[in-house]
Specification:
Layout lengths: L24 E3 L4 H10 L3 E3 L15 E3 L9 E3 L2 E5 L4 H10 L2 E2 L11 H6 L16 E7 L5 E5 L5 H4 L8 E8 L1 E2 L2 E10 L1 H12 L4 E6 L10 E7 L10 E2 L23 E2 L19 E8 L3 H9 L2 H4 L3 E9 L14 E8 L3 H14 L5 E2 L17 H11 L8 H6 L2
Parallel strand pairs: 1-3, 2-3
Antiparallel strand pairs: 4-5, 5-9, 6-10, 7-8, 7-9, 11-13, 11-14, 11-15, 12-13, 12-17, 16-18, 16-19, 17-18
């Protein structure tokens, strides 16, 4: 059955306008059968997600496929929720909360689609919290032959397919493990110095359920290095050398805090505190670029010292940096595969040339075993060096997509 949804004239750009898509057209199928029909008749196509990558990751010379109009709703069976891939996390979270259920974590932005976030290994924060992909118990994917394939946790291809960077097909549905709903309070702790960060880094990252350290990597006029965002399910912890903010803060100093989730220790539902930004506001600043590197947690101090050593080059290009922790998993292309990681995130100014000039030197200074976030900017020509199952994933991609229908320039650079 052919899709009846008309194609848009222009595929548009990424959320931050960091990349203009060059695809021939964009279509919005309304059913899984429509998706299968597209795959069977189009030689080149690619799932679009919610446009929150910063590169040509989702582009194609053929047809972009958005699942944001897929005719499906979530459904709950016991502890597991079945979700259409194009649904946004903020919408899913509100739906779950109405039914007394929750997810273990959320990313900074609730605006991102479930399938796109999972496919790129996107994460929140917390030394005991895995990436969003670790909640997946099953996924359904239309492969390069137009077949609908269901993979469940424990099946041979599951761990390779979950963080699939769009190389295996179009993920139409996912199933996620949920828990009973819970309350979270958020506080901001100001005045963190670099000396206190170095001495107490592991302690700070483990101080609460979810912890983020925001910094511009150089000392501020008051001598501080950054602020600590603490999201707690119990009592508010003390953070060495800091004081509690008495007014709401934006993660980027000086901006209006209205787009940010509620602070000042007021308890609220998990989905209204774990993200940094509210669903009904534009997150961050919009005009920006982003990079993120995930480093084995046992090399965390080496990593922060490496970035600090480049502060005079990082700071002029940076809107804000974020330091988080993510728990290990067994998903082949997850940046947390096999090890707990320290996540070093950078929200850059919209200066592509300046960022491109900096990234090779920044990456060279980071410890061995550092892995990139797939949806953001990185410079390495050999990203697979940090992933033990890299060749296995490449073989899996060839098997799921033998005619390379989902292949694009980004995969050609990254997978080879």
């Amino acid at each position: 059955m052919r899709t009846e949804t008309p194609a848009l004239d222009a595929p548009g750009s990424t959320w931050a306008r960091s990349y203009d898509y060059t695809a021939r057209e964009l279509v919005r199928p309304r059913s899984v059968d429509d998706v299968r029909d597209l795959v069977l008749r189009e030689p080149r196509l690619r799932a679009l997600g919610s446009r929150h990558s910063f590169t040509d990751l989702a582009d194609t010379p053929g047809v972009l496929v958005s699942l944001d109009r897929l005719d499906a709703s979530p459904s709950l069976s016991g502890d597991v929720v079945r979700v259409p891939g194009g649904m946004r996390y903020g919408e899913l979270a509100a739906w779950l909360e109405e039914r007394g259920r929750a997810l273990p974590n959320l990313a900074s932005l609730p605006h991102i689609s479930v399938a796109g976030a999972v496919a790129t290994g996107t994460h929140g924060s917390g030394v005991a919290n895995g990436s969003l992909a670790t909640s997946v118990t099953a996924l359904e994917i239309v492969d390069g032959r137009g077949e609908l394939v269901r993979l469940e946790s424990g099946s041979p291809d599951f761990a390779g397919a979950v963080v699939g960077i769009g190389a295996l097909g179009i993920v139409t549905h996912l199933e996620l493990l949920t828990s009973p709903t819970y309350q979270v309070s958020q506080t901001v702790h100001e005045g963190l110095t670099y000396d206190d960060l170095r001495e107490h880094l592991t302690e700070i990252l483990g101080a609460a359920y979810s912890v983020s350290i925001f910094t511009r990597w150089g000392d501020e006029p008051d001598g501080s290095f950054g602020r600590v965002w603490v999201k707690s399910r119990s009592t508010t912890p003390e953070i060495p050398g800091t004081v509690l903010a008495t007014e709401p803060r934006h993660v980027i100093p000086g901006l209006d805090a209205a787009p940010c989730t509620e602070q000042l220790g007021v308890p609220g539902p998990w989905h209204e505190r774990l993200p940094h930004f509210r669903l009904d506001f534009q997150p961050s600043v919009g005009a920006e670029l982003q990079s993120e590197y995930l480093v084995p947690l046992d090399r965390a101090q080496e990593a922060v010292d490496a970035v600090r050593s480049l502060a005079d080059r990082v700071r002029p290009l940076l809107q804000v940096g974020e330091i988080r922790a993510v728990a290990a998993d067994d998903l082949w292309l997850s940046p947390a595969y096999g090890t707990d990681v320290l996540a070093l995130h950078f929200t850059w100014l919209a200066d592509p040339a300046g960022v491109a000039d900096l990234l090779p030197d920044l990456e060279q200074r980071l410890p061995a075993g550092t892995r990139p976030h797939w949806g953001k900017l990185f410079a390495t020509a050999d990203p697979g060096a940090g992933f033990p199952r890299w060749d296995d994933f490449r073989a899996l991609a060839r098997r799921f997509d033998p005619d390379r229908r989902f292949w694009n320039a980004w995969l050609d650079r990254v997978l080879g």
